[in-house]
Amino acid sequence: MELLDKLNWRYAAKAMNGKKVPEDKIARILEAARLAPTSSGLQPFEIIVIKNQSIKEKIKPVAWNQSVITDCSHLLVFAAWDTYTVERINYMFDLTNEIRGFKNEGWENYRQMLLNAYPQKDAEVNFNHAAKQAYIAFSQAIIAAAFEGLDATPIEGFDPTAVDEILNLREKGLRSAVLLPIGYRQEDKDWLVNLVKVRKPMEDLVTVIE
Ligand SMILES: Cc1cc2nc3c(=O)[nH]c(=O)nc-3n(C[C@H](O)[C@H](O)[C@H](O)COP(=O)(O)O)c2cc1C
């Protein structure tokens, strides 16, 4: 199947059947998320993978009682940094130097520029910027899930404060941004499965400037 066939096949499943997804498939989805591009390469988020059924049961009521939260195999929580700190910025720049095996003046100047700009900003502004980066990885995970023939339902319908509490995210300097239950669609219980995909026409989406 071509990528576009897989993207047409995928949809935001409303019912899943509880079947477990093999770990190698989940690992490839997480790797796709890890490979996502992010602003300045900071990757300002973490992904919590919930396999534990009782934790899923705790999250369901604070996620509009959506059944996919408990009927999925793995529940991914994309949690963004609550702010940018000197330590967090330095960590990624140091990691880059370590992995590439050299220091570069331009890169070090860029580090200083970020250090002089980001940590001073309002934490809410920084969290929102970090959450946007998390969404890029989230999107890559959705595509990767479709590639694996798995269903993945993007979920913004939840109370982030409640999820942060359940997972103790604030203590780790994280805030939940978006959820992604991964599993297998349950066709006989899903009103959406046979409905035609609706997208606005290309001409309403794209403007080409020659
Ligand atoms: C960021 C985001 C949040 C969403 N939140 C929910 C949600 O909480 N519950 C749900 O059933 N669908 C949710 N959706 C699914 C969208 O409604 C769905 O992707 C859209 O209608 C397009 O349909 P399709 O994905 O089935 O092709 C969300 C989608 C995105 C991208």
Automatic annotation (TrEMBL):
Residue ranges occupied by any Nitroreductase domain in the UniProt entry: 9-184
Alphabetical UniProt keywords: Flavoprotein, FMN, NADP, Oxidoreductase
Position of the signal peptide: none
GO molecular function: oxidoreductase activity
Keyword NADP: yes
Pfam families, alphabetized: Nitroreductase
Superkingdom field: Bacteria
Cofactor(s) required, per the database record: FMN
UniProt key word Cell wall biogenesis/degradation: no
Annotated PANTHER family: NAD(P)H NITROREDUCTASE YDGI-RELATED, NITROREDUCTASE
Family: Belongs to the nitroreductase family.
Protein name: Nitroreductase
Species per Swiss-Prot/TrEMBL record: Mariniflexile fucanivorans
